[in-house]
Amino acid sequence: MVDIDEYSVHDLNAIMKGFRYGVPPVIYYHFLVPNRDFHFGLCPLGNDEDIVKFSQYISEHKVMKVYTEHGETRLLTYFLNPKPVTKVTLVQLDEAHEDVQHNDEAPDD
């Protein structure tokens, strides 16, 4: 049993070490969303935001399935940024032009 309010990804590592079967250096954790297919219901458990998502299912489903992959993962969403960047502006600076105008500044007339 674990207290989900105080649970973190590091606790998963401690649990795996408790199994004593030789923990590899890299383990990827995933949980299966209840009532979802294995191929489309796996979600990553790689950071504390993932644990928060995981905890949303705990109140209704007391037992959750957690899966591991050792060494590498095939779950494509594992490395996605949990907070997608909405806008990025790339600007190439000319070395001769020290006077840089930002997008949010009005041009001088």
TrEMBL record:
What the entry lists under InterPro entries is as follows: PB1-like_dom_pln
Q: Where is the PB1-like domain?
A: 2-70
Q: Supply the Pfam families for this chain.
A: PB1-like
Q: What is this protein called?
A: PB1-like domain-containing protein
